Amino acid sequence: MPYIQKISYDAVLSRENNVLIYEKKIDFKRSFEFFKISLFPFSILKVSSFFLINFIPVIGPLIILFFQSSSRGLLAHKRYFKLKNFTKSEIKEIYKINKPSYMAFGLSALMFESIPMLNLFFIFTNTIGAALWVVDIENNEPIEEENFNEIISIQNSIS
Question: Which residues cross the membrane (predicted)?
Fold first, then answer.
């Protein structure tokens, strides 16, 4: 996620009073990950097949949107997963449980971002929408006793 999108994502979290997540915010240094050898052949095959499918009139772009939607939806919560320090197995479990929601969000995000001239605007609205979705998730989660005490102490220190 680019820096400006991280700022808007964090601003939404702080504005919506999601103190527990926002206070645990860690500044992540950029890490340049080079190609992973095991995934490299698969990614070339995937990109080239999407490129060829894109040439099918009308149906091709829709097929690509459908196949990329679930990963785009999951990518929208990447910052949330980092802030909550989730492991890869926890992320996979969350994804399995909420796959239709991630696909719906990803599909709508990709469709809006594919509109020429307005895509930059929709990138930010999708980022804000993902952050608001996180706030909804956190508000619907039952609060444990230790987390409740931590939230109260953080809110008292802010006041």
Answer: 34-56, 102-124
Residue by residue, DSSP assigns 4-73 as: HHHHHHHHHHHHTT-HHHHHT--PPPP--PPPPTTTHHHHHHHHHHHHHHTTSTTHHHHHHHHHHHHHHH
With tokens 């040439």, the residue in question is 55
Chain position carrying tokens 């230790």:
146
Domain ranges of the chain: 3-25+68-158
Taking the chain, what is the end-to-end CA distance rounded to the nearest angstrom?
Answer: 31
Question: pLDDT 10s digit of each residue in the chain, 159 long?
Answer: 678 788 888 888 878 766 556 555 555 444 444 444 555 667 788 888 989 998 999 899 889 988 889 889 999 999 889 888 889 999 999 999 999 999 999 999 999 998 999 999 999 999 999 999 988 888 887 655 555 555 556 556 655
Cα(115)–Cα(8) distance, integer angstroms: 21
